[in-house]
Write a structure and sequence with these properties.
This protein is of the alpha/beta class. The chain has 14 helices and ten strands. The strands form two sheets. The chain has a six-stranded mixed beta sheet with strand order 1-2-10-7-8-9, with helices on both faces. Strands 5-4-3-6 form a four-stranded parallel beta sheet, with helices on both faces. β7, α9 and β8 form a beta-alpha-beta unit. It is globular. It starts with a helix and ends with a helix.
Length: about 325
């Protein structure tokens, strides 16, 4: 279990390195959902997503020998970019295992940070096995995308900043894939605001955490088909699930259509570009999946890494 002190320690490591991203409001959004909504815009984070927080916190904790050998990570895109950038800043080298069908913008960005990209087929191969094999063969330090205490603590700094800016949040909405972001954020929320209702949001086709919490144990599903490519983990992490079992109040799901509606709203009304995974919390609000009338709501907009062509394709539909 991670605790508030772990997140506070991560915040000190990230100070002056990670961006303190803005908290943005919209009168139109407030009127539509009947609440005061505060969006933590991690689309403005280094690397375009919250993932930089956990990656830098983890890699900066490695000793000089490990940094000299390099790091390896597996990712659908955002974690890979974050690890590549953090490794570059810390004068290390990164190898990133990415699916062949990862968005072109994410592949290009990962390579632009100097990382070696190893492609795999997400439907027939195991990225975990490939990552572990590369770590063993090359002597690289593995940087997991979510199932690691330092990674979880780093991600939690997004909520720490949000609650410093908005200290009276009644409901906190967080995207859920492997569970690292919501594990860190729920740890902060429950320590600072014990009555805060922490809600995770998953795609309808990728509700492995929802099923797992209902079953009381980790449930594995098929790799989900969803436009939210950053939320396609088929099973919660072992460490993240332990945290989320204790600190997450509820999981809701939204459809791909509801995600696109949220992306359009964020662009049209708030001038925010959100990737599908990033917009999922706002999708839950706009679709009425979360009741927060007359309350104060915090939403983690987790990232904005969507290429112009893909964004146009999605919203054009």
């Amino acid at each position: 279990m991670i605790e508030l002190g772990d997140v506070e320690a991560a915040a000190k490591r990230l100070a002056g390195v990670a961006h303190r991203t803005p908290v943005i409001t919209s009168r139109t959004l407030d009127e539509r959902v009947g609440a005061r909504v505060h969006i933590k815009a991690e689309c403005f984070q280094r690397g375009g997503a919250f993932k930089f927080r956990g990656a830098y916190n983890k890699i900066s904790s490695l000793d000089e020998d490990a940094l000299a050998r390099g790091v390896v990570a597996y990712s659908s895109g955002n974690h890979g970019q974050a690890v590549a950038l953090a490794a570059k800043l810390l004068r290390s080298r990164a190898t990133i295992v990415m699916p062949e069908d990862a968005p072109a913008a994410k592949l290009e960005a990962t390579r632009s940070y100097g990382a070696e990209v190893v492609l795999y087929d997400r439907w027939t191969e195991s990225r975990e096995e490939i990552g572990a094999a590369l770590a063993a063969e090359r002597g690289l330090a593995l940087v997991p995308p979510y199932d690691d205490p330092l990674v979880m603590a780093g991600q939690g700094t997004a909520a720490l900043e949000l609650l410093e800016d908005v200290p009276d949040v009644d409901v906190l909405l967080v995207p859920v894939s492997g569970g690292g972001l919501i594990a860190g954020c729920s740890t902060v929320a429950k320590a600072l605001l014990p009555e805060c209702h922490v809600v995770g949001v998953e795609p309808e086709t990728g509700n492995d955490t929802q099923q797992s919490l209902e079953a009381g144990q980790r449930v594995r599903i098929d790799v989900p088909h969803t436009i939210a490519d950053g939320l396609q983990a088929p099973e919660p992490g072992a460490l993240t699930f332990e945290v989320n079992q204790r600190r997450v109040n509820e999981i809701v799901t939204v459809s791909d259509e509801e995600i696109v509606t949220a992306m359009v709203f964020l662009y049209d009304r708030m001038k925010l570009v959100a990737e599908p995974s990033g917009a999922i919390g706002v999708a839950a609000l706009l679709s009425g999946k979360v009741g927060a009338r007359d309350g104060t709501v915090g939403v983690i907009l987790s990232g904005g890494n969507v290429g112009a062509a893909r964004f146009a394709e999605l919203v054009g539909q």
